[in-house]
Design a protein that fits this description.
Blueprint: H1 2-15, E1 21-22, H2 23-37, H3 41-54, E2 58-64, E3 67-70, H4 75-88, E4 99-102, H5 104-110
Antiparallel strand pairs: 1-4, 2-3, 2-4
Helix pairs in contact: 1-3, 2-3, 3-4
C-alpha cells in the first residue's frame, strides 16, 4: 500500500509547509483517495499516518503553551491513540483532536530529497 499513498503523504506534508495540520486534513485526504480508488478511508488514514511517522516526515502532537508539542509515544502507541480518538468521534474530529507538524526531514523529502 505504501507506494499507493506516497502522493497522499506529499499532499499532507505540502499542507504543513506553512503551519501545523489538523488530523482532519489527513482524514479528508484519505477519504478523497478512498472515494476515487476504493478502500476504507480509516485504513488509509492509519496507513498514511504510519508512513509519515515511520519515515520521520511528520510528528503528531498537541497544541500547548509552547506551540506544537510532539508526542513522545512510539509509532505503534501513537497510531493506537489516533485510532481510539478518531473512533470516539466517529472519524469526524472537526478540529477536536490532534495536529501534525513537518519535520526537517519531511521538508527535505518534499523538495526533492526523497529516498
Amino acid at each position: 500500500m505504501k507506494e499507493n499513498i506516497t502522493h497522499l503523504a506529499e499532499e499532507v506534508i505540502r499542507e504543513g509547509e506553512e503551519d501545523w495540520v489538523m488530523v482532519d486534513f489527513l482524514i479528508g485526504v484519505s477519504e478523497d483517495h478512498a472515494d476515487a480508488n476504493g478502500g476504507d478511508f480509516r485504513e488509509i488514514s492509519v496507513a498514511l499516518l504510519r508512513e509519515l511517522l515511520d519515515d520521520g516526515l511528520m510528528e503528531i502532537g498537541d497544541l500547548g503553551e509552547s506551540g506544537f508539542e510532539a508526542w513522545s509515544e512510539s509509532t505503534d502507541d501513537a497510531i493506537a491513540k489516533f485510532k481510539e480518538g478518531c473512533e470516539s468521534l466517529n472519524w469526524r474530529p472537526m478540529g477536536g483532536l490532534w495536529w501534525l507538524a513537518n519535520t526537517k526531514k519531511g521538508a527535505q523529502w518534499l523538495h526533492g530529497g526523497r529516498s
